[in-house]
Amino acid sequence: MTRDLSTRILHADRAAGIEHGATHKPLHIATGYGYERAEDLVSVFQGDKSGYVYGRQGNPTTAALEAKVTLMEEAVGTVSFASGMAAIISTMVALLKKGDHVVASRFLFGNTASWFNTLSQMGCEVTLVDATEAKNVEAALRPETRMVFVETIANPRTQVADLAGIGKVCQARGIVYIVDNTLTTPQLFRPKSVGASLVIHSLSKGICGHGNALGGSVSDTGLFDWDQYVNLYPNYRKGPPTAWGLLQIRKKGLRDLGGTLSSEHGHRIAAGAETLGLRMERTNANALALARFLEQQPLVRKVHYPGLASHAQHARASELFSGFGGLLSFETVDGVSPVALLNELQLVIKSSHLGDNRTLALPAALTIFWEMGQEMRQSMDIAESLVRVSLGIEATQDLLDDFAQALAKLNK
Ligand SMILES: *Cc1c(COP(=O)(O)O)cnc(C)c1O
């Protein structure tokens, strides 16, 4: 019997047995771990025995969160990090070498795009393609291509990558396929179902949900054959091959780079994850209602939301996802400044961040996509007037009323 995802998340901690019968995993704050016998310390260090050695490589609290993410993604294992960016960068530094080639979607979270720019200065070539069609990814592949990276729903323009098509291409060519599942969350979509090798999350967003902790993760779906991966160090060929990639990420990525998730934040994220299902239901309904409302407004030129029939990948999103997410973006008509519009909102918070219980909005081109310049924004289809809205769990009518009164003021 397969139980509902929320049910399984709620009872996940108890699967491993908890100190004193606590109903969820307590906060472990020790930096170091001591052993009665030196032989045990040696065994744990050498990987022959499971255990903890030093807090930079994790602790029982973050391990419990990792187990929860593994469960959510139906993966074979997970490594957690201090943020989504730490997860992305540590994974790539751990798996890539000079001269390698990476193909990525050109519709990306701004800091991920900035990281690819850095990576290309460090001896790895990066080709950015329109990943809404798998043939563009396929055409960019080279013999030295080691990985393909895409987001499920791109932040902020909501393009939906050809997730299944790219999965087939990567599988046929033996290339690591990394999917950033932040905007969909495992509640709506499991990248494993389209052949992803690794699944990335910014746990700071929908999985935490309360805007009170930063975290990131990478999970291995078990589908990639690490025995075939040319950059795998002999030291990490230990145990079943499905574990090799993640072991190298934990050592070369987490241990050496040190972007470790704190137990306090891990604990808050784990508590947030318990209500993921409930929150996604409300935020997705709010997003659809607001998208439909904005589509009717004369001051709004275009609304981008995968749940709208007008969205270019609406059919794909309907087929792959069990909901359309809590994020939308829209462009105002010429002469209507997104800044002026946002200033009229009384309830919605002018803020970056997304996947929060509160509804947040920002002028995307002027803030999170400012540093990259207009040319790059154009290549990512980000209009200068684009407003990004991350829907919270407020009552739908309160949100519609807020946008209605703001638009009415500008229409005067
Ligand atoms: C926010 C975000 C990230 C980065 O995560 P942080 O936790 O903020 O470092 C990566 N990918 C996507 C899609 C995001 O929205």
UniProtKB/TrEMBL annotation:
Superkingdom field: Bacteria
Modified residues (N6-(pyridoxal phosphate)lysine): K205
NCBIfam families according to UniProt: PRK05939.1
BP terms from Gene Ontology: cysteine biosynthetic process from serine; L-homocysteine biosynthetic process; transsulfuration
Cofactor: pyridoxal 5'-phosphate
Family under the similarity heading: Belongs to the trans-sulfuration enzymes family.
The keyword Transferase is assigned to this record: yes
GO function term, MF aspect, one: O-acetylhomoserine aminocarboxypropyltransferase activity
Pfam families: Cys_Met_Meta_PP
Keywords: Pyridoxal phosphate, Transferase
GO terms under cellular component: cytoplasm
Designated name of the protein: Cystathionine gamma-synthase family protein
